[in-house]
Amino acid sequence: MRFACCNELLEDWPLERQFRFLRDVGYEGIEVAAFTLAPRITDITTGQRAAVRRLAADVGVEITGLHFLLARTEGLYPTSPDAAVRRRTADYLRALVDCCADIDGRFMVFGSPQQRNLPEGVSTEDGRRALMEVLHAALPAAADAGVTICLEPLPPPQSNFVRTTDEAISIIAEVNHPHLRLILDGRSLAAQVQTQQQSLAEIIRTTAGYTAYCQANDANSGGPGAGDTDFVEIFGALHEIGYDGWMSVEAFDFSPGPENVARDSLAYMQRAHAAAVAG
Hints:
CATH topology: TIM Barrel
Number of domains: 1
Structural class: alpha/beta
Order of helices and strands: EHEHEHEHHEHEHHEHEH
Number of strands: 8
CATH architecture: Alpha-Beta Barrel
Radius of gyration: 18 Å
Shape: globular
CATH superfamily: Divalent-metal-dependent TIM barrel enzymes
């Protein structure tokens, strides 16, 4: 297991300070929120992308990829009934793929619930078809760039569409492309436990063969270890299904201080992972 941290935790800091701090804390990777680079990913020049790539290499951290793909954008909705909007969204996803590859990232976390939610009057089935159309349009570029798009289940109240791992896997299986996989998120898993009456381990076991990326946070929106979400169980189940990729901290409650969240999250994950592997 390799540990990373999402950079919007330190959004007000220059990128170099972010990267050096997280490296010094002990993280191997950094997951970049697209909006921390520019309001729109198409605003980032080739030279600026090369500078980000060189910075990560010089500091000695790996950029895992991008997330918050559509956050803070306007007019982009993969579930829109408007074909022109869907085309613009697919074009933007391809631009995100290009940027992700240009900064040496390999994963794109497709959450962005406000942009992905079903618009009023759009059925789940119509939204599903629309999303798959957009994904089909973007995935050839992802394959060419060596980038994997990871569909994120987001339970209510965050989202009204693709809310569970089963729903995400159903879309991934139907699209049937090796560069579309699943991302698991601690807070979302904890919410699914409450609605489906399954344990964390039981849910994770159903994702074997689909999970390509993971994010760590607690049900209370803090970092891992800030509440009651059991990461020993999560790490144990991930180990059981053979997942040994990234676990990236994505906290939403920064009130303990971003530096403390980063340090405490990593320390907790290291303890929890060691306990899980030890059995």
